[in-house]
Design brief:
The complex is a heterodimer. Chain A has strands at 3-5, 10-14, 19-21, 24-26, 32-39, 46-52, 60-61, 64-69, 74-79, 88-96, 104-105, 109-114. By secondary structure, chain A is mostly beta strands. In chain A, strands 2, 5, 6, 10, 11 and 12 form a 6-stranded mixed sheet that branches. In chain A, strands 3-9-8-7 form a 4-stranded antiparallel sheet, with no helix packed on it. Chain A has a two-stranded antiparallel ribbon with strand order 1-4. By secondary structure, chain B is mainly beta. In chain B, strands 2, 4, 5, 6, 9, 10 and 11 form a 7-stranded mixed sheet that branches. Chain B has a 4-stranded antiparallel sheet with strand order 1-3-8-7, with no helix packed on it. The chains are: A mainly beta, B mainly beta. The interface between A and B is medium-sized, with 24 and 27 residues.
């Protein structure tokens, strides 16, 4: 069974500052993929960033980057230069072939960016 | 490419009624997933299709729930004899299959919010 744990239910950051959201996971698979999704209030789930477990290099997408620590089974998301539009629920998710590629989600972290 | 669409966006029904939701995936995507999301929680897997075949169902999917994907295109999720505990957001997602991460990335629709009175 796969599990994903997000230990920070809520976080806040000032506009233009940097914030890091934490995620730990557990899987017995060797080949798996990790994702961060963003769900703004009353809006749909949007992919933020993806990391393939076989890649050592941390993924980056503009202001978003991850710190993937495979041995520690840790996958944190760093948001630089936070913007008001980054206010949302952020979900960490895991998938693998052994699970038919269905996503296992954490409970989410509600991020509020303050002006 | 218009993304994943879901209809209706909102559904209010009385306990005991049947409801049906529709999902239209991204056109070239052969995998389609249904998830349920309750307030303050992450989505939970319900079922998935590869083309027209339903390959896995969660234990969350009681016998009151049925899903279809005729011809491997759109999918429907039906809930019979709805209960108040069925109130949730029902999300649909689609993806390709292959050997790289891009192939297994799921793209979500806006969801159908069900309220059972």
């Amino acid at each position: 069974a796969q599990t994903v744990t997000q230990s920070q239910p809520e976080m806040s950051v000032q506009e233009a500052e940097t914030v890091t959201l934490s995620c730990t996971y557990d899987t017995s698979e060797n080949n798996y993929y990790l994702f961060w999704y963003k769900q703004p209030p009353s809006r749909q789930m949007i992919l933020v960033i993806r990391q393939e477990a076989y890649k050592q290099q941390n993924a980056t997408e503009n202001r978003f980057s991850v710190n993937f620590q495979k041995a520690a089974k840790s996958f944190s998301l760093k948001i630089s230069d936070s913007q008001l539009g980054d206010t949302a629920m952020y979900f960490c998710a895991l998938t693998s072939g052994g699970s038919n590629y269905k996503l296992t989600f954490g409970k989410g972290t509600l991020l509020t960016v303050n002006p | 490419d218009t993304g994943v669409s879901q209809n209706p966006r909102h559904k209010i029904t009385k306990r005991g009624q049947n409801v049906t939701f529709r999902c239209d995936p991204i056109s070239e995507h052969n995998r389609l997933y249904w998830y349920r999301q309750t307030l303050g929680q992450g989505p939970e897997f319900l079922t998935y299709f590869q083309n027209e075949a339903q390959l896995e169902k969660s234990r969350l999917l009681s016998d009151r729930f049925s899903a279809e994907r005729p011809k491997g295109s759109f999918s429907t999720l039906e809930i019979q004899r709805t209960e108040q505990g069925d109130s949730a957001m029902y999300l649909c997602a689609s993806s390709l299959t292959g050997t790289s991460g891009d192939w297994h990335t799921q793209y979500f629709g806006p969801g159908t919010r069900l309220t059972v009175l």
